[in-house]
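Thread title: Can someone regenerate the structure for this chain?

I was given the following input by a collaborator and told the matching structure tokens would be attached. They weren't. Posting the sequence so someone can regenerate them.
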Amino acid sequence: MAERVPGKTLALALAVLAAVAIRAQDPGGKMAFDVASVKPGNGDTASPSFPINASDAYKQTGGYLRAEFPVLTYIEFAYKLSPPMTIEHEMLANAPKWVNTDSYAIEAKAAIPNPTKDQMRLMMQSLLAERFKLAVHFETKEVPVFALTAVKPGKLGPKLIAHAGGRPCGDFADPYFTPAAPERVFRGEVTAGPDNFPTFCDHIGLIPKPGGVILMGYRNATMDMIASSLSGAVGQGRPVIDRTGLTGRYDFTLEWRRESAGATTSDDPAPNSVQALRDQLGLKVEATKGSVQVLIIDRIERPSEN
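Best answer:
Regenerated them for you:
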């Protein structure tokens, strides 16, 4: 889930985030909610109980879930997916259009008091199978990808730092950690870097800035997660896969100008995404082919109201 950004720029932020690469993970096992209600959505845009996405960002709610999204969002949450458009089209090849258009409000309560996010994913898998008759399978497909590698093996760029040497995830004493922080970054009142942006760990922060400049960040991320997050920035919609050989967890920020925003000037020499990747993170991408796991929807039905 992205950091909150000023209203006029939110659509752009969501469009970029929608292009992050697929990261298919089945938590394994089987669990179910104790009680659950599924109803057609009524346009309620209130925030969900916790981020309903593939990230690890999570807050305990006592096992309670409330959200209103299209069913595709619930499927991607349940199976820990964040596919680029090319892969998402393959996922939806056998599915009716309403899966990605019609929203459903879900309220559910777990039988256990403090489930993990992966346990909530398993419960959502069971709910989708029971109430939407969802049946899926995974296929391994060879597709065009971009391989993420280091410009100089073993050397990180200035805006890519080891998480162990940065700000702890739970350190919220600094005045930066306020609900208004993204707006302050947007206005230029706060300088964002890998040690303080995004505000919280385990999810992508994204702020469109004036002049077509995009600021993106991720804290406490593996290189696999970083590669996945870069598809919308440098992957042209293709999956980006990690071939850096780097292990551990990292914090990074990346700032670049969208090519559609026009040419840069000497007064505002913002780099394009490929230049920014090289100079700020010490990384590069190379076009190749690679294997990705793709979830295929075999069957789904509208649920009966309850």
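The helical segments are 10-17, 71-78, 85-91, 117-131, 181-186, 223-229, 231-234, 273-281.
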